[in-house]
Amino acid sequence: MTGTLTHVLRTDAQDNRDRILEAARELFAESGLSVTMRQVARRAGVGPATLYRRFPTKQDLVLEAFMDELGACSAIVREAAADPDPWRGFCSVVERVTVLNARNQGFTDAFLAEYPSAIDFAAHRAGLTREIAAISRRAIAAGELRADFVLDDFMLVLLAGRGLTSVPARYRVTAARRFAALAIEGLRAGDANYPLPRSPRIASRIISAGPLSSTADGGKTPPQCPRSHPA
Question: Does domain 2-56 have CATH number 2.40.50.140?
Answer without folding.
Answer: no
